[in-house]
Amino acid sequence: MDTFIAVVIMFGVLVAVHEWGHLYVAKKAGILCREFAIGFGPKIFTTKRNETVYTVRLLPLGGFVRMAGEDPEEIQIKPGYEIGLVFQGDGRVQQIIVNNKSKHPEAKVVSVERIDLEERLFIEAYADEEEGLQTFHVDEKCDLIVDEQPEQIAPLNRQFRSKSPLRKALAIFAGPFMNFILAFVVFVLLGMINGVPQDNAAFGELTDDSPAKEAGMQQGDEITSIAGEPVDTWQEMTSVIQEHPDEEINFEFTRGGEQLSASVETYSRTIEASGEEVGMVGVRAPVDHAVLGAVQYGGDQVIQVTTVIVDTLSMIFTGDFSLDFVSGPVGIYNYTGEAASMGMVVLIQFAAMLSVNLGIVNLLPLPALDGGRLLFIGYEAVRGKPVDPQKEGMIHFFGFALLFLLILVVTWNDINNFFL
User: Which GO terms describe its molecular function (predicted)?
Assistant: First the structure.
């Protein structure tokens, strides 16, 4: 249950930050964002604020921002339709009742002759024979009421498709970009709170049962040599210590400008991957809590994680790629449980790495992913006009189906690995 809660919270935060990036930039570009959703499936929570409906859905497997004009509009009113009109104080149409007109006795029922809800925002319709053909002006924030569910109309200047390729690209790229920003901020905060490991030959915190502590050594001691071998970095120091399991070795070090020495009895630990016995003295690396160091650490960590993921994905083209290199929901669930068992810090670090992974995967040039949409926008910029929305939507649909199939294959592989 703890692992499940950790997965739900972690994915909820990662998805929320990703989708908030889309939402923020899209709204700045003047795009009407109809819905901001966390999860898929049935809605379990709904609230509306500033034109956008915010929902939490049952299946915590992703999320989306539904922008007007990104896909073909679902509701279309054609000549001959009977609709109900509700007016606001200035005489403009505030609501258009598409069906269930009997539930809105205040609405004026008309028969549509011509209608334009994108550019000129008007309705030409017949109310009765005496009044003849009338023209009604529609408010730009008018709601279409279908099955008692309101949905705001989207004038052309509020639609995704009307924006320049640059504005579209920024709205799409903002989601993955926010995942990188989130990871960077998390690593910086961890660096400030826990300290940034330093690569110098010195003692950081000593454990309570540390052989070095029992020998009289202290945090901050600067090591100059071990077992007669000079050392300058943390890497060199730990390498020498590991070469002497269950041995008494001499440390030369300085403390407050004074040259000292101590004999330390190491203990051994087995490395699971190789089965090798290595020496330990119960000391952690020295750390620095400086803000600038934490900022540099955050950037370095994001770059390192990105490099590992990109190198792994590049194996697809070299033929060295394996399904064991990727994980689906089951694998991520198991890794999250392992990270949670190691403590909150490890779990947060894992979440930051997963955020980078989410950003990179979403930028892959595959249909249904942000990278696929960016590919279409780039093609539009070169071609000078957008791809037909119906055709693009069909390509994204098939792309989503293939991605879903891939998730099933990876999940099956995860299950096999888990039980084997």
Answer: metal ion binding; metalloendopeptidase activity
Do 145 and 85 form a contact (C-beta atoms < 8 A)? no
At CA 228, angle to CA 222 and CA 232, rounded to 5? 40
Domain boundary among 288, 318, 350: 288
Assess if residue 105 is contained within a domain: yes
* Cβ burial 282-303 (10 Å sphere, 16+ → b, else e): bbebbeeeeeebbbebbeebbe
How far is CA 13 from each of CA 10, 170, 181, rounded to the nearest angstrom? Answer: 5, 21, 13
Mean pLDDT, residues 104-116: 93
Domain range for 370: 12-31+160-195+289-419
Give yes or no: residues 114 and 138 share one domain.
yes
Among 255, 288, 321, residue at a domain's last position: 288
Output the CA–CA distances (angstroms, integers) from residue 128 to 96, 108, 110, 112, 195, in the order listed. Answer: 18, 11, 8, 12, 77
- Neighbour tally for 277: CB within 10 Å: 12
User: Active-site residue numbers?
Assistant: 19
For residues 153 and 164, membership in a common domain is answered with: no
State the pTM of this model. Answer: 0.80
Q: How far apart are CA 158 and CA 165, in angstroms?
A: 15
Residue with tokens 């730990």: 238
Is 238 or 339 the better-scoring residue by pLDDT? 238
Identify any residues that bridge with 67 across adjacent strands, giving them in sequence order: 33
Residue 110: band (very low, low, confident or very high) from pLDDT cuts 50, 70, 90: very high
Considering the domain boundaries, does residue 88 fall inside one? Answer: yes
180 shares its domain with 132: no
Same domain, 123 and 180: no
Please give the average per-residue pLDDT across 349-378, as a whole number.
91
Give me the residue label for tokens 């949905």. Answer: 151
